[in-house]
Amino acid sequence: MKNLSNILLNKIGDEISPLTAGPQASHQARLWSIGGGKGGVGKSLVTANVSISLALMGYKVLAVDLDLGGANLHTCLGLPIPEKTLSDFVTKKVKTINELILPSSIKNLSVISGAQDELGMANLKQVHKNEILNALSQVDADIVLMDLGAGTNANTLDFYINSQKGILVVLPEPTSIENAYRFIKSVYFRRLKMIEDLLDIQPLINQASNAKINSGNTPTDLIRKVYDLNPEMGTKLKTEILKFQPQLIINQVRSQTDIDIGFSIKSICKRYFGIEVDYVGYLDYDASVWQSVKKRRPLLLEFPNSRLVTNFDKIVNRLLENT
């Protein structure tokens, strides 16, 4: 794997020397989504710096701000407020999504900004979501990173569900952890409700989705019930559940206890949901984060000696292992 620290040593001014041996863009770009369930957990920070890391490694990357109405990814990347956003694609002011793509100062990295005005974008119709997803999968890029909004609204869940890799950013604090579980549960059951092959067991799925976490009626209980009623349907259900493998990042870590929260979340998700969460790494708490935002400069470029460089290096290489 490429070492990010060594690559950053090639920085000359604001220009990064691209790798010449990078992978070639495939016909269909891989969609990665970054969610978190709660605002302020660092989704845009992760999206921006994972995008930069991949670009420096030679991948052709498109970073897309899908925090509709609260777009700020361009700030994390040190870019001015764009004139055209996803709103223009949805409202047909532009013919193709390619017209929204803006180059960054980093070779191999381009950006699409989200809507600055939430009006009309908060509740996208399914047809518009499908158009965005289809268009993004056809852009000239190896990987498209989608920075999602906070919460568990339909837009956020559907973009997360329809990506090949779903990343979950969590802070080591109770409210963020609770929202992360709520986000996982929402994605989990929305996925199951969208699968036609599971139509016959929708009443059981609805019952499990409405149950409280301490009720004893867990998703793993759902699998057992379905197996008892219909082994073939139970096998289909388990197959679909195993496809859901969130990639977990713990942000703003200050201690080993904070680091261990990731393993706890992984264990609980296995026991409660029956899913495998891939704990891909953590990000140390570092004051350079807010300093880079204040300077409107990407973190990795403004502070190439930060310990976060090592963090992102490990995280990105782990994400690429399962690509």
Describe the 3D structure.
By secondary structure, the chain is α/β, with parallel strands linked by helices. It has one domain: P-loop containing nucleotide triphosphate hydrolases (Rossmann fold). It contains 14 helices and 8 strands. An 8-stranded mixed sheet has the order 3-4-2-5-1-6-7-8, with helices on both faces. β3 and β4 form a beta hairpin. It is globular. It starts with a helix and ends with a helix. 46% of the residues are buried.
Summarize the structure.
With 323 residues, the chain is an alpha/beta fold. The protein is 44% helix and 14% strand.
Keywords:
323 residues, Rossmann fold, 8-stranded mixed sheet, 14 helices
Gyration radius (Cα, Å) is: 20 Å
Number of strands: 8
CATH superfamily heading: P-loop containing nucleotide triphosphate hydrolases
**Average pLDDT number:** 85
Principal-axes geometry comes out as globular
| Topology pattern, helix = H, strand = E | HEHEHHEEHEHEHHHHEHEHHH
Structural class: alpha/beta
Which architecture does the CATH hierarchy give at level 2? 3-Layer(aba) Sandwich
CATH structural class: Alpha Beta
CATH names the topology as Rossmann fold
Which percent band covers the strand fraction? 5-15%
Strand order of the largest sheet: 3-4-2-5-1-6-7-8
Number of domains: 1
